[in-house]
Write a structure and sequence with these properties.
Elements (H helix, E strand, L loop, with lengths): L2 E4 L9 E12 L7 E9 L5 E8 L11 H4 L3 H4 E6 L16 H15 L3 H22 L13 H10 L8 H17 L4 H36 L11
Antiparallel strand pairs: 1-2, 2-3, 3-4, 4-5
Helix pairs in contact: 3-4, 4-6, 4-7, 5-6, 6-7
Bound molecules: zinc ion (ZN).
């Protein structure tokens, strides 16, 4: 049976021996001619299995038709382990398209942490997404003239934005929950799965009110203006 050596993500043994069991090939990226292999292997130190992504480093072997059992002991010389499949590879939820890219990336980092059971990291990132949302609002809306002192912390910024009607007051409890649980996660490390899922839900509500609904209305307004544009007059010859 083919074998190779690498670190075991299941038991932590370094450069331990794995026995190859099975593989499937897929294109490196959609449309590309090169292939990577997802291979299932069992660690000899702990008898547990891991799916490794492997890449062909032998220029003599091309395409997806690599006979792994045939490689036997040469497997380690032919294939290079690039990473392993873990819960992080579960599909993490993305922010809606109307959320600015930088903030959407932080949201994705939070939901990826959630799928990886890293609840403190997830809650801290949800709070960061909220912090960036309010900062973004202050710097992009010329009508907002917030005093420096009120802009200094997230708590003060939220209070000012709500009392000056830039954020709907019914979001207050959602904002406070994300801010406070995010703080606890970052400073005390006590976040649980339930809290992380709550924060995701609250941030979804905040994004919906601050980004999605206004963008939806704006698009409807543009479509209406487009419909009401005077139609081009037909040339005389077509009358
Ligand atoms: Zn192991």
């Amino acid at each position: 049976m083919p074998e190779f050596h690498t670190d075991c993500p299941r038991c932590g043994a370094s450069h331990t021996t794995f026995d190859y069991v099975a593989q499937s090939a897929r294109r490196h990226r959609a449309g590309m001619k090169t292939f990577v292999f997802e291979t299932y292997n069992v660690c000899r130190a702990c008898d547990r299995g891991t799916i490794f992504i492997m890449q062909n480093i032998n220029s003599m072997l091309r395409g997806n038709n690599v006979d792994f059992p045939e490689l036997n002991l040469a497997l380690g010389k032919t294939m290079q382990v690039t990473k392993h499949i873990s819960v992080r590879n579960q599909k993490a939820k993305k922010a809606p398209d109307d959320v600015p890219k930088k903030i959407a990336n932080i949201y994705l980092e939070a939901t990826e942490s959630l799928t990886g059971n890293c609840y403190n990291a997830a809650c801290a990132m949800f709070r960061t997404a909220l912090d960036m949302t309010t900062q973004n609002m202050v710097s992009n809306n010329t009508a907002i003239d917030i005093p420096k002192d009120d802009n200094y912390t997230l708590n003060k910024r939220i209070k000012w934005l709500i009392s000056n009607n830039f954020i709907p007051s019914e979001l207050q409890d959602f904002l406070d929950n994300v801010r406070l649980d995010g703080n606890d996660a970052a400073h005390e490390g006590t976040a649980t799965e339930a809290e992380s899922l709550d924060l995701q839900d609250f941030v979804d509500t905040i994004f919906d009110r601050i980004y999605v609904q206004p963008a939806k209305l704006e698009r409807a307004k543009q479509r209406r203006a487009e419909r009401r544009k005077p139609k081009n007059k037909l040339p005389d010859s077509d009358k």
